[in-house]
Write a structure and sequence with these properties.
With 170 residues, the chain is α/β, with parallel strands linked by helices. The chain has 5 helices and 8 strands, in the order αββαββαβαβαββ. Helices cover 36% and strands 28% of the residues. The strands form 2 sheets. A 4-stranded mixed beta sheet has the order 2-1-4-3. Strand 5, helix 4 and strand 6 form a beta-alpha-beta unit.
Amino acid sequence: MNNREKNVIAIQKQQINSQIKSPQVFLIDHENNNRGLTDTREALQLAQSVELDLVVVSEGKEAPVAKILNYGKFQYQKKKRQTQSARPTVKEVRLRPNVGVADYNLRIEQAVGWLSKGDSVKFVIRLRGRENQYREQAGEMLERIVNALSEVGKVHTLDKRSLVAQLVPA
């Protein structure tokens, strides 16, 4: 077996309407009522009468589970769920070096919540004008942030020169 055959991923396409070969299916109608074991032809007729599709949602041991639904809408929602779960979210928190204690604590609490949910957090300390004189204090503030969040997250990047720290869930 060469490398190309190893990298091929089998995509299982769902059976809809006349593609269903099983003589009987466990039917769930368009109102989410369980109709039980039903003849496939009857299920197709029922689906056509309400102008929807008969879609196999699960392969069962005895017979597959089929549901009457709008197949286009079903595909759209499935694709939307996949893109949401695949996308890593990075929350960004911008601070100034002279931030108050209450605001600092609020941002730390928010970051703890985001990290516990599985999101990564990026802290950026912005310096403007005369604030550039206090670059060392801003670097110390960045270290304080990393230390405060060390229990729930680990440092992915820490750049004291550009005053950016990114933390990922631990």
